[in-house]
Amino acid sequence: MSKKGTPMNSKTGSVSGYKQKLDALLSKIRSLPNDSLEKTIAVAVGVSLFCAVFVAFSAVVLRPLQIANKKLDIDKNIVTVAGLISESEAGDADLVRAALGDIETKLVELETGEFNDSIDIETFDARKVSGDPELGMEIPRQDDIAHIKRRAKYAKVYLVKKGGKLNAMILPVSGYGLWSTMYGFLALEADGKTVRGINFYDQAETPGLGGEVVNPKWRAIWKGKKVYNDQGEPVLGLIKGNVDPSKPGSEYQVDGLAGATLTSQGVSNLIKYWLGQNGFGPFLEKFEKSKTPEGAA
Ligand SMILES: Cc1cc2nc3c(=O)[nH]c(=O)nc-3n(C[C@H](O)[C@H](O)[C@H](O)COP(=O)(O)O)c2cc1C
Question: Atom of ligand 1 at shortest distance to CA of 258?
Answer without folding.
Answer: 27
